[in-house]
Amino acid sequence: MQRITIDPIQRVADTLQLTNEQIHYLQRVLRLKPGDVFIAQDGQGEQWQSQLTEVLGRAQVLSVLTRPPRPVTLELVAALPKTGFDQVVRQATELGVTHIRPLLSERTLLKPSPKKLVRWQRIAQEASEQCERGYVPDIATPVEFTQWIRGKSGGKSIQVGNYFCVARVNSPGLLPCVQALLSDSPQQSIQVVIGPEGGWTPEEITDAIAHGYQATSLGSGILRATTASLTALAIISSVREQLL
Amino acid sequence: MQRITIDPIQRVADTLQLTNEQIHYLQRVLRLKPGDVFIAQDGQGEQWQSQLTEVLGRAQVLSVLTRPPRPVTLELVAALPKTGFDQVVRQATELGVTHIRPLLSERTLLKPSPKKLVRWQRIAQEASEQCERGYVPDIATPVEFTQWIRGKSGGKSIQVGNYFCVARVNSPGLLPCVQALLSDSPQQSIQVVIGPEGGWTPEEITDAIAHGYQATSLGSGILRATTASLTALAIISSVREQLL
């Protein structure tokens, strides 16, 4: 069934007050007519079976649907690639990511305009509707790598579930690391950090390890930055799925 | 170092006779000048360190590079999605696929023109150059699902390493299946089959199982067809990497 994401304040008693954009989407894109049924979600797990009415911009809530289980935290921290981040946001959402944090690292070439964040949020929302997850991932404002890492508590000890993917360096594979972690505690939050084209600088790698990140490898092959993000999330989601 | 793929017949003794397209690519796209060194590969594992000469269209072979190990067979059989197959070919090549077979299934909407095959082959070649694999995957001409499955030997017994991914059906996960298989024989060839938007028809699933395919799941979430292909390959490549 077709889905749209609404703001909870749009629900007034048993009616949904739709925005012009939502009306356009339901009628012109999804081709729904008065009387047709769809699912409205708030992106935080609430979802309602709803029906378009004859009154323009108003839908009737028919029933409250079961809340899907809240997903375990899976955060993708990715240095922005030059192109292709739209695709990363879409696919990451399908793979069940709960938080996306874009970084500007030393070798990041893109300086995104503030409009990009709005665009990524819309893409994440659409992907969440399509894949019926009921939850829309949070997307943070891009920050500099140095600023981001400074916000982390330092210390030599590895922070559980924090993985920093490096290429062309001899590090343990992400798959066995995640399997060892989740076989003990399948509900453990995971954060995975992926570099830009050209990789991390040696200083960035040192800095991440000094802040408790475990350096991990996605294999001996060379992956583009966008493929690396997807590969890491596919591995983590599959292991979690196997153990939950 | 920059790479291009050449036909072995372009190598005559210690010189490479380059095509106009290759000259354009080396000089205009990769910005190489006479004297600059690059790697020429034949896409089948042979690779030569080479140097552009002053003579237009000619390069000097400096040395024969070590052949990378021949990759173990990993075949992606994918019902063509409506859009996004270019991206699948690119990312599948990065993830080490050796064969790609596009299928036209019951619910496939795309009827690709013959030009598409040439385009996919060029994308695979470029991706192989970028990720320095030395091997370019074979891409087969798209065929109908029914024609393809008829070419398989039937029989009730499961063919080892043949996985048929299904959505919304209770099947064992691809990850544990591949781990069980490869932990016994890490060099085992694998073929993984992915459906189109809208999934397989019940008849197609029955047909595949009757031809020895093991039905497997990529998880409880709903993935678009393109994301499903990459998720499957990321899982298989990571397991193989872990065990080889």
From TrEMBL, chains A, B:
InterPro entries (alphabetical): Alpha/beta_knot_MTases (IPR029028), PUA-like_sf (IPR015947), RsmE (IPR006700), RsmE_MTase_dom (IPR046886), RsmE_PUA-like (IPR046887), tRNA_m1G_MTases_N (IPR029026)
Name of the protein in question: Ribosomal RNA small subunit methyltransferase E
Pfam families per the UniProt record, alphabetical: Methyltrans_RNA, PUA_4
Annotated ranges, domain Ribosomal RNA small subunit methyltransferase E PUA-like: 18-55
Family recorded in the similarity comment: Belongs to the RNA methyltransferase RsmE family.
Catalysis: reaction(s): uridine(1498) in 16S rRNA + S-adenosyl-L-methionine = N(3)-methyluridine(1498) in 16S rRNA + S-adenosyl-L-homocysteine + H(+)
Residue ranges of every copy of the Ribosomal RNA small subunit methyltransferase E methyltransferase domain listed in the record: 69-237
BP term (GO), one: rRNA base methylation
GO molecular function, one term: rRNA (uridine-N3-)-methyltransferase activity
Species assigned in the record: Leptothoe spongobia TAU-MAC 1115
A GO cellular component entry from the record: cytoplasm
Top EC class of this enzyme: transferase
Subcellular location as annotated: Cytoplasm
Record keywords, A-Z: Cytoplasm, Methyltransferase, rRNA processing, S-adenosyl-L-methionine, Transferase
Enzyme Commission (EC) number: 2.1.1.193
Main localization of the protein described in the UniProt heading: cytoplasm
Function (record text): Specifically methylates the N3 position of the uracil ring of uridine 1498 (m3U1498) in 16S rRNA. Acts on the fully assembled 30S ribosomal subunit.
